[in-house]
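Quick one:
INPUT:
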């Protein structure tokens, strides 16, 4: 990534995504605390446990790859809002207080998480267009 704004922005988004995942330790510690529950109900239970572990691994990978300025940081940061929506967690910390316990909470959650995905997509597009230079006379 050559554009310094994009590098800083994707790192900031990755850190925000990681800070939104860290307080929810009940989600990602469950397969570690109760490993016998992983294979209890078959493939469905295994896939839920894998998704619970991905809930913390994906934001960690987003921060690590953004730190090393790897292009896959966009992928990791863009996947996390989908996983967070599956567990009903906002991709931006402290925005859960905006939504009450009413029925509109899901729509606020969905709009915030989609907004994070759109921001990551726009940063990716900006990083791709920043590298393209017009050829001089060719």
């Amino acid at each position: 990534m050559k554009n310094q704004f994009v590098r800083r922005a994707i790192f900031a988004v990755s850190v925000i995504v990681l800070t939104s995942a860290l307080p929810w330790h009940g989600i990602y510690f469950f397969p570690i605390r109760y490993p016998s529950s992983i294979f209890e109900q078959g493939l469905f239970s295994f896939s839920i446990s894998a998704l619970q572990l991905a809930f913390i691994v994906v934001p960690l990978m987003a921060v690590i790859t953004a730190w090393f300025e790897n292009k896959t940081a966009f992928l990791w940061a863009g996947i996390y809002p989908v996983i967070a929506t599956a567990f009903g967690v906002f991709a931006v910390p402290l925005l859960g207080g905006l939504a009450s316990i009413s029925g509109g909470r899901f729509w606020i959650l969905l709009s915030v998480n989609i907004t994070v995905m759109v921001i990551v997509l726009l940063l990716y597009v900006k990083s791709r267009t920043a590298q393209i230079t017009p050829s001089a006379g060719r």
